[in-house]
């Protein structure tokens, strides 16, 4: 409770006109300045004491001292009244503490404490044939603690005790405790618990003409306030609708301040990035930006500070689990009522699906070009192949040695494989040959036999760890797959290098690994290795690994690669295959 002495003196003109209605036993005085309250209490208590009544004051120490000083200055013998028991002054906080329980007045304790106070006062009043005049501001202490429910309940208990005791009770509340719209309900309930409501000094001290003027002004303000509240309700409805749109949007919507600190985060942002709102709000937006793109955020914030929007900016962001997301950003400045930029709103759209579709289209275009080129090459190669086949047939008639016949048979086998590939390409023929039992070790040995000259030229040491493993497959295609991988390894390793070929024990998934100690593959090139026409060689078409992956996928598997560069480089291609006879049949649908 602030000191009334420290406030400016209030004009006392017409103060005598502010009286407590004698016909009411329970009144409430609202006030803005302590000086006004004390002056009201002086009149109330002074009149009672002058009439021989007994007075009970339950107030703060500050107000008790001020009231006593002012009463004595009005020639009231307060000391005698105290000795006679006609003036009882109690501390509001101490008295309140005697009957409060869990934030609410306890009825039983209240009746005991206040009943004892009233009994003492009534004993003195009876001797003098007087009445009781009470002032209490315990309710004001409760309201100051934001416990309006407790204050209202205490007012009800005073009304309840009035059924068995006769007294005039004045309560007081400072108006500063009812400054907001949210206090309106409590204010009204407090007024309802009193027989008389006395307005604060701004009205009580005014002349009659000014009172009417004040009433008119307050009516106009109330009307204006109702209009403003109506506009606020409309604005709130619009804000709620906008909030619902933001909450249900499929796009991630977030906001940040000019320091890049995230200030809001909708449900779609949670789904897209994996961060809950309570986890990410308050963190820097750099949390979801890849390190190499942090500089972009400085440029974005620079444009926002200048009030410039950014539309459909395609970039990359990072989810909580480390996934990189292709996104399109639209960033708009947020301005305060004065037009000053205070932050930015972001709409983030996941364009990963579109990017994948675009990539698929580019891949399809590459494949179409590959097909056209391959068909042309196959057509041109087919005629010379027929001639070479005939020449090999004639040559067979003149070869007598076993080694010669073995080499000739191997040449005819490879020539047949080339012929099969050209037929596949030229006629879009895929898989016309029936799968057959294939021993993977035999296929790999035949590939190494064909490439033996190339291996010898580079003095490459080949380590074989081949476990027995048979599967149903297209033998010629597997030979082509392994030929591409081994040939790439030969090209990669240095003179005197090492290649290791391993076939793991047969399982549901057949696994072959081909590793080499070449210089390794740069990390940025790994994702593109199996793209058509992509090559890291000085000479090459970039089709070998693409064809190999296609064959592996045809056999229910795939090819993966691990590679490291540096002091101990190593590259390992891992081929996983499944028996084509054990794969689930593909269900074709008619166009």
Give the SSE map:
Elements: E1 26-31, H1 34-50, E2 54-59, H2 61-73, H3 78-83, E3 87-91, H4 92-97, E4 100-101, E5 104-105, H5 107-128, E6 132-136, H6 138-144, H7 148-161, E7 168-174, H8 184-192, E8 196-198, H9 201-204, H10 208-248, E9 252-257, E10 262-265, H11 267-273, H12 277-280, H13 294-305, E11 310-318, E12 324-335, E13 341-350, H14 352-396, H15 402-426, E14 436-439, H16 440-450, H17 452-457, E15 461-466, E16 470-473, H18 475-492, E17 498-503, E18 510-516, H19 544-554, E19 558-564, E20 570-577
Helix pairs in contact: 1-2, 6-7, 14-15, 16-18, 18-19
Q: Can you tell me the number of structural domains?
A: 4
> What's the arrangement of strands in the largest beta sheet?
3-2-6-7-1-8
CATH class of the largest domain: Alpha Beta
Q: What is the averaged pLDDT score?
A: 83
Which runs of at least 5 residues are low in confidence (pLDDT < 50)? 1-24, 427-432, 584-591
Count the beta strands. Answer: 20
Most strands sheet = 6 strands, parallel
Q: Specify the number of helices.
A: 19
Looking at the structure, the CATH topology of the largest domain is: Rossmann fold
Tell me which CATH architecture of the largest domain applies here: 3-Layer(aba) Sandwich
Euclidean distance between termini CA atoms? 87 Å
Regarding quaternary structure, how should these chains be classified? single chain
Q: What is the CATH superfamily classification of the largest domain? A: P-loop containing nucleotide triphosphate hydrolases
Helix- and strand-based class? alpha/beta
Rough shape?
rod-shaped
Radius of gyration, in Å, reads 48 Å
The portion of residues assigned to helices is: 40-55%
